Every structure is written in C-alpha cells, then in structure tokens.
Amino acid sequence: xxxxxxxxxxxxxxxxxxxxxxxxxxxxxxxxxxxxxxxxxxxxxxxxxxxxxxxxxxxxxxxxxxxxxxxxxxxxxxxxxxxxxxxxxxxxxxxxxxxxxxxxxxxxxxxxxxxxxxxxxxxxxxxxxxxxxxxxxxxxxxxxxxxxxxxxxxxxxxxxxxxxxxxxxxxxxxxxxxxxxxxxxxxxxxxxxxxxxxxxxxxxxxxxxxxxxxxxxxxxxxxxxxxxxxxxxxxxxxxxxxxxxxxxxxxxxxxxxxxxxxxxxxxxxxxxxxxxxxxxxxxxxxxxxxxxxxxxxxxxxxxxxxxxxxxxxxxxxxxxxxxxxxxxxxxxxxxxx
Amino acid sequence: xxxxxxxxxxxxxxxxxxxxxxxxxxxxxxxxxxxxxxxxxxxxxxxxxxxxxxxxxxxxxxxxxxxxxxxxxxxxxxxxxxxxxxxxxxxxxxxxxxxxxxxxxxxxxxxxxxxxxxxxxxxxxxxxxxxxxxxxxxxxxxxxxxxxxx
Lengths: 337, 150
What we know:
heterodimer; A: 18% strand; globular; B: alpha/beta; 7-stranded mixed β-sheet
C-alpha cells in the first residue's frame, strides 16, 4: 500500500490530494481562483501566486484531514514542478519541500501534463501503448506512450495553444473569459454561415491555431467594412468546427498509424462538448482502439492526477531532490528541450 | 538612421526577417513588439529564435507570460497581453539585466519594464497577408542592428 500526498499549484487552482496506490482518491481538495481572474480577462500571475500563498496551508490541512491518513503514514510527497506560471509553481514546490523536510518524506516532482493524462486512470485502467490528446490553455499535444513511464510528444502546436485561441477569439467577440465554455455554448446555436481556412502545418501531427485566430479577426473586419451584422453564434460555430476538426482529424490519423490500444483526451479543453462528440464520431471507424473521455472533474486542474503520476514515479523510483526548482517550461520525456 | 520599414508577404518571409535579426543580435538587448492580435509578433519571434540557433519550436507565451529558450543567447519571451490595466511586480527586471535577448510582446502593458535603449517593432497586417514591420531603434547598438535588415 502506497500513500502519496500530492500538491498542484501550476496555474489558478490551489490543490492537494491524498491518493492510495495511484488509484483510490482519499481526498481531493481544490480551491479555485477563477472568479478573481475573470475580472482581469485571464490569469494574473502575481495575483495567482499571492492567493496560492494564502490558500495552500488550509488546502493541505483539509486534504490530510479528509483522507483520514496521518502524515506519518504518507510514503511520498508529489508536486507539480511544471509547466505553469513560475510564481504559482514556486508556492507548491516550497510547500512540498517543507512537508518533505518536516516529515522526512521523499519528493516526487511531476509534470503537470502527465498529470492530465493520468487523470483518466481514475475512470478507466490505462492500456498501453496509449495515445493522448492533451489540450488546454497552454498546451496542444499528441503524446505517444509505449508504456506507463514513457512520454513521446509526436505532435504539438506551432504557435498558439487551442485554449488560448479560444480565449483570444472570445475576447475579440466580446464574450469574456474563459473563452472555451462560452464559445462551445454559442456554437451550439450557430449555423455554417462563415468559412474559415483550415490550418496548415509542416508536421503531419502538428497543430496551428494562430492563422485561424487571424482569419477570425480578418473575417470580422471584412464584415464590418461591408456593413454586415456579425452573427456571433455563427463565428463561434465556424471557429470551433475548423479548430476542432483539424485537431481531431490529425489525432485519428495518428491513431491509425500508431495503433494504440487506447486513446485518451486530457486537459481543460477536453471538457469541450463538441470535441468530445467529434472524437466519439470519428473513433467509430477504429473500434479496436478504446476511446476514453474523462469526466468533467478530471479535465480541470486537481492534485489527485498529480498523485496518480506520483505513484508511477514512486514505482520507478524517480525521486527528486531538495535542489529541484519550479520549471515553467518543463518538458515531458521525449520532447526536445 | 533610426527607423526602417520592411514588408513581408508570407510566414516564411517573416521567419527569414526574424532569423536575420536573431543572427545579428548581441547580448543584453531588448526588443519591444506592438501589433494587434494576429499581426505576427510570435511569428517574427519564431524567426529570431531560429537565428539564435534555438532548435525547440517557439510557441505563444500568452498563457504563462514568460517562456525561456536556450540558444547562442538565452531568449526571454515575455507577453503582456494578459496584463492590461494590471500593475504588478513580476520580477522580470532581472531578466533584462541578464546576457540574453528579451523580446516583449504587448510591451505597452509592461511599461515599467521598458529600458532606456531598445528596438521597437510595430507590426501591421495589411491586405493579402502583407505585413508591415516598422523598426525603430533607440540607442546606437540598436541603430547598428538596423543596418543588417534586408
């Protein structure tokens, strides 16, 4: 039996969890700052780290209390080392080190994106080789995993992350932050009225959303110049269909070529209803690969997922040291540094 | 001469322009970039990264505000997009004192960070993918840099 206490502060959620054997969530406390950041139209780093500092002790205390596990019985402390906002990450790193020092526990530095992939392990046993489509405000990656501790990024965005493109388009349309859920909802009532260019990339499995973002801006400018009323729902529809289809078709292409046993969605944008629907539709043609769509609570940032990766790191004896620091640009194994 | 205007008509040409800058930039320089969403700030910075011999693909720093890349010089890629109307101490001043190159997008939202001397690059998307890059050099080191532009 292995008990991992996990801490996650990479962005705007202060989170702590206690996870048993990488599978069983004994507690999973998340304190979100989203309301604070909505005011600013995005996460504000200094505000984020200050709120993390205010919240971290209470969040850890609550996670330990709710788990019913004594600190003495914790085997290791896992924490998010990166990627993320530097100031936010530091808070979690310092908290983890402090606990490790105080209770004499080993440290397990974890990559946040690996955490998103492993969030799926709480709903379905992961089967390898596995392909993951990791999509969030800061990431858009196709990750190939031959086994549980091998991450190879076979495709990535060449400019903006998908979630960032959603945020920027939402801002241009005056829809507020975060842009993903709003555009998703608006697009439901949209019609195929506007046409946007399909993103092109050099790499077969790479993504690009910057050109699409510019195309939305140009579309709005053009319509304005011609004195046309801009139908926001239809712009949202055109943007969402184009962005998601380019991503899903590349993912399906990768699945056909690599033939994984399982394909999983991961990250905040995995909560997008159209992405989930499109993946289900497209994966029907490849029934031999199992599709796992994470429940909503797994898509947002939490510490349980860090605990799940921490458990794998524990199994592989991948311990960190007190010299390790937060790394905002931390890459997964297999990614070029 | 402290001002130059260059036009490009494709992503490749914008990358080439950036690469030219990246090859010729010297340590401890600061570039400020201004231009609307989709103007081509990150695309130009991708070229600069290539010119610095950075192998890793450079992506938008909007989400994390700061991204760091290691090449012939360290590239600090900062984005003020999310910081409109917010005054805060982000601790970026020390990066500017380092021997790297600092590229700041949406520099108008990070006024407190702007040093006395810099290269300002204003980008405008004209029609048919034609982009106008206006380079304005403040300081003799930056004026020399303008000479290498195509």
